[in-house]
User: Fold these one by one.
Assistant:
Number 1:
Amino acid sequence: MEQERHILVVLPHPDDETGSSGTLAMHIGQGTPVTYLCLTLGEMGRNMGVPPFANRTTLPAIRKQELEQSCAYIGIADLRLGGLHDKTIEFEDRDALIRQIADVIEEVRPSLIITFYPGYSVHPDHDACGAAVVGAVKRMAEDARPVVYCIAFANGCEEALGEPDVINDVSAYLEVKLSSLQAHRSQFHHMSGVLLLEDEKLRSRWSKERFWIYRFDESRP
């Protein structure tokens, strides 16, 4: 894996980072610093734990603690909170959101950004977050733009986007990935460590992290 100067992760919800946790842990193991801008605290999450240990009032603080624990397992030392509200990112002032992201890009100067692929990431917050990241990078000079890795998992995304550009084998980091998932106890109470680590099909699926490189030449949607 090529070493990056700095990686910026921009995602909307606590637990979104778990899908890239193996890749991030690999880069951190190489000495690459990672900054994670999480735009919301997942205040509108439907899961409250089993048995329930949260309510709508206490959930944001609990999810913040879970996010911090997940980042600790992965090795992310620089966690930033965007201060936006869950399920409202698509309604935020687009220019203000782009500026917020652009300010972090200017500060940390990443060589790689990880976010969601606009239009192919199921949740409106995912798509709006990815679109804002793309908007921020588009405003940069072409020779100064970082590479943008996008996560996509909507039905038909491979038909529209083609095969992923990057498939990372993170099998050596499955325990990190599992710890990251289980840190989000309110959301992933059903995740069984034994099942994930011992079930061959699950291990195979969770051992591969897929990314599409965003093409600013509009060769993709």
Number 2:
Amino acid sequence: MLDRIGELRSEVEAAIAASQATGDLEEIRVRYLGRKAELTTILRGIADLDPAERGPVGKAGNEARGALEAQLARRREELEAGELGERLAGDRIDVTLPGSPVAPAGSLNLLMRTRREIEDVFTGLGYRVMEGPEVELDYYNFTALNHPPGHPARMAQDTFYVDPGSLAPGIEPPPGPEDVLLRTHTSPMQVRAMEAQPPPIFIVVPGRTYRSDPFDATHSPVFHQVEGLAVGEDITLADLKGTLDAFAQAIFGPERETRFRPGFFPFTEPSVEVDVSCFACGGSGRLQSGERDPLCKGAGWIEILGAGMVDPNVYGFVASHGYDPERVQGFAFGMGIERIALLKHGVPDLRKFFENDVRVLEQFR
């Protein structure tokens, strides 16, 4: 019996040494040390042996079992380390890469996307994008745009005023009212841009503006606007019409047309309200179902912006910079970015742009 225990031990040691995978070791353990293994059977049958054999056989069997279990454990550690090294080499991970699945990237707010789309249209037409200060002087916001003190149009553009003492040292307000205010439109950059360069000039000015309006479905005390200005020697109202046709077709579709209606703005003369042919009903005023189109209210046209030829009085404030009203003329236009976004994407309420509701924002990723 002792000889057989020695043979089994040698056989198992050889099998352990020859194993190449942890799976092989499990087979060896079950085969030689499991519940039905020969060594286990020998140890269970010790009670049936002669008293003189019980001690030596039990001792040899237990020693063999303990030694084999220790060898199995050592060999398992060796094989597991090797297998781990192979997996690491084959599954190398670049920790600088994003996780899996990749987290969805953020996206621009629909207002910013619409602003950039408008900018792209006009830069493609040769215009330059400019920006100006949101805290503006009365002179640029009103006076130099043909809104003299006491002009009733100032009331329609009532805004938020700032303490003039907050101006940086060394800034001297121009002649006239020394009020400092949050700009009511981006139009002040018309005068600032003409002061900075002689004609011809072609610019668009996007940015945030402020008025003391209510906050409802169509109004906000904070809104965004794009102002456009084109001044040269031979620019006419026909050029304005062609420019706005190109803009409307780029934003709302190639079938769009524009319509001019008489309007009034203090810094343009003549002034026009600009409509675009309805892109929901195609200008018919009726949907395919025959129902009245709620978007254009059955008119077939939708108002999108105001425009006109620059009033000669405005040139009078920049005449010393090369803008002689007898020699140059041009046009200006202004549009609300919120209105363009509302119309193009069918957003029913302007307040949706400011609520940061993820369910709304994710629709325009």
